[in-house]
Amino acid sequence: MRPPPLDNGTPLILYHSPMPAEPNATRPMFYLALIIAAAVAAGCSIFHWSGYPPQKHPAPENDAPLSVPAPPPYAAAASTAPAPSPRLTEAELNARYYYDLGPDSIDVSQYPQNQQANYKVFAQLCSQCHSLARAINSPRSNHVAWEYYIFRKRLRSKFAPGKGFGRREASVSLSFLDYDSKMRKGKYREDFEALSGELQRHFDRVLYHRMRLLQEQAPRLGGER
User: Fold this and answer.
1) CA 152 – CA 166 distance, rounded (Å)
2) Residue 63 in contact with residue 200, Cβ under 8 Å?
3) Is residue 90 a contact partner of residue 206, using CB atoms and an 8 Å limit?
4) Contacts for 130-136: CB closer than 8 Å, 24+ residues apart
5) What is the pTM of this model?
6) Dihedral (CA of 148, 99, 120, 127) sign
7) Where are the alpha helices (DSSP H) in 128-188?
8) Long-range pairs for 101-105 at CB < 8 Å and ≥24 separation?
9) CB atoms < 10 A from the CB of 134, how many?
10) Most CB atoms closer than 10 Å: which of 52, 54, 55, 191?
11) What digits encode the pLDDT tens for the residues 156-201?
12) CA atoms within 13 A on the CB side of 160
């Protein structure tokens, strides 16, 4: 239908401005999905390069036990199943050195009379802070080493009420240790070295079982790094 003419006979032409296009309602959702996908991809990449790949298997409920080193050959059991830890003595639980596990007395019946008397002073002096076995089975064998040992013990005794001793007790003990070292660690050296070797092997076994006891008492520590 043609538009009506104007008064002068010119036809009226109507111009319609184009309507603005409605925004695409799906475009924001597209950008949002794109951003989420990029974030997920970046997170997976960071996780991968951090050295911690995704777990493919469920983690165990309990932490693994302590990794105990294999026992020495002489302590190896015939069965691969873990055996219960043996009952350790008080001396074995408290031993700091292998010579703590040796004999705690000396047969001095064949020693000279004066050294038999010196032995009593030595035994009383060196059993105040630790077992007498530590001094008896110690690898020390020369005068300088024993003199240093006695001097250091005397200094420490100054700060331990009721455990002090004077120069006479130190001199008497040093005299006995010198003589005893010449006999047991000199004249009968092979016997003493054989005993020392057995004590060292026994101490290794004790340490192995003490580790087993620690593992049984605190199993969850095995998971810590």
Assistant:
1) 13
2) no
3) no
4) 130/100, 131/91, 131/100, 131/104, 132/104, 132/105, 133/91, 133/99, 133/100, 133/101, 133/102, 133/103, 133/104, 134/97, 134/99, 134/100, 135/177, 136/99, 136/102, 136/103, 136/104, 136/105, 136/106
5) 0.57
6) positive
7) 132-136, 143-157, 167-182
8) 101/133, 101/137, 101/199, 101/202, 101/203, 101/206, 102/133, 102/136, 102/137, 102/195, 102/199, 103/133, 103/136, 103/137, 104/131, 104/132, 104/133, 104/136, 105/132, 105/136
9) 19
10) 191
11) 777 666 666 788 898 999 999 999 999 999 999 999 999 999 999 9
12) 11
Task: Please give the structure tokens belonging to residue 75.
Answer: 């302590």
CA atoms within 13 A on the CB side of 68: 19
In three-state form (DSSP H/G/I as H, E/B as E, the rest C), the secondary structure along 44-67 is HHHHHHCCCCCCCCCCCCCCCCCC
The type of residue at 132 is: L
Residue type (1 letter), 9? G
CB 134 within 8 A of CB 165: no
Neighbouring residues of 52: CB distance < 8 A, sequence distance ≥ 6? none
**Topology classification of domain 104-187:** Cytochrome Bc1 Complex; Chain D, domain 2 (1.10.760)
Read off the tokens for 205.
């076994």
Q: Are 172 and 118 in contact (CB under 8 A)?
A: yes
Which two structure tokens, joined as six digits, stand for 2?
């043609």
